[in-house]
């Protein structure tokens, strides 16, 4: 039951909370929680090639990540979500290349440069601002932090825990290098960080 529950919950790519697993599946078998989760994790791995990963030990929230090689390197991908994941990889690349955190104004300017305008309906991505600030954040690909003492309020974007689990800085640097037609070592500090 837990395997089925996790597979259904993962379709929305929203982290799965321990409380939901206890309430909806495990119920009266609370004492065997760790054993049940461990067994479900083994079944997910062996049957579906998915790894159950705890991304927030305080809130006890989990995600499923594929342990199978993806068609295009090791980037996060799902067939119907390919376009959104492409945009996400571009955003993660921008954040990494700019020192692992970017102001929202810089991110929106970068996206406008790519002809993806926040606040306008995009034919592929829909509402881009909502996709980035709500969906990618809720799915834990991105983390938004308010910048203190800013009026009007400004925010900083960083990689979220799901991004760190599903891809690596080395993969992202190789992606940027391929797009730019350069050797990854061209960006010394990013290369050092990615290969550390």
UniProtKB/TrEMBL annotation:
Gene3D superfamilies to which the protein is assigned, alphabetical: MAGE homology domain, winged helix WH1 motif (1.10.10.1200), MAGE homology domain, winged helix WH2 motif (1.10.10.1210)
Pfam families noted in UniProt: MAGE (PF01454)
PROSITE patterns: MAGE
A GO CC term attached to the entry: nucleus
Domain MAGE positions: 1-194
InterPro entries reported in the protein's UniProt record: MAGE, MAGE_WH1, MAGE_WH2, MHD_dom
Official protein name in the record: NSE3 protein
Source species: Piprites chloris
Lineage: Eukaryota, Metazoa, Chordata, Craniata, Vertebrata
Gene from which the chain derives: Nsmce3
